[in-house]
Amino acid sequence: YDIYAFDYLTSNPIDTNAKRFRSKMDSLFQAESNTVVILAHSMGGLVSRFAIYEGTSRPSYINRVITTGTPYHGSPWASPQFQGDRGPLGSIAGFLTDTDGGRDLAWDNFDGKISGAANVKLTQINAKKDRDDLFYAYYGSVNSTGNIGSGGNLPGLSIACPLLGSSFAPSDCIVPASSASLSGN
Known about the structure:
Structural class: alpha/beta
């Protein structure tokens, strides 16, 4: 196997990064057929999804896209409507997401849980489904004791996750499972 890495600035818009990624893949793999596997985490999964849907044709070189903890419907923590009543943690989240790329991670409100929240880019990409069979979404959740699914225990998470809010449980503290599972697609 050959392994390639794709770097991008998280502050850039997701669709801008996706266009660069798709262009790079097209130039590298145009002669391939069903051989490329993408492994992406978090925002990288969104960049990959936007790249797969870039252009009018499905990339024939892609075999599958494996994502972990990808906020397909965004994260409440990237939404000003959610950040606003979270005190200092909301202010920190606002600071961290105050870029084009950070704003692209805002909750798309597909479930109506955050009054006034919206993310046009995610709503538009999530309306597309004809290439979703390429995606394998993996995600986890942390409960109030810091247990990670059926796996180990990270004591620090038992303190951090409740502070981050449980209105979107199950979640990994930042990305709700309903978002990371590509719920509705």
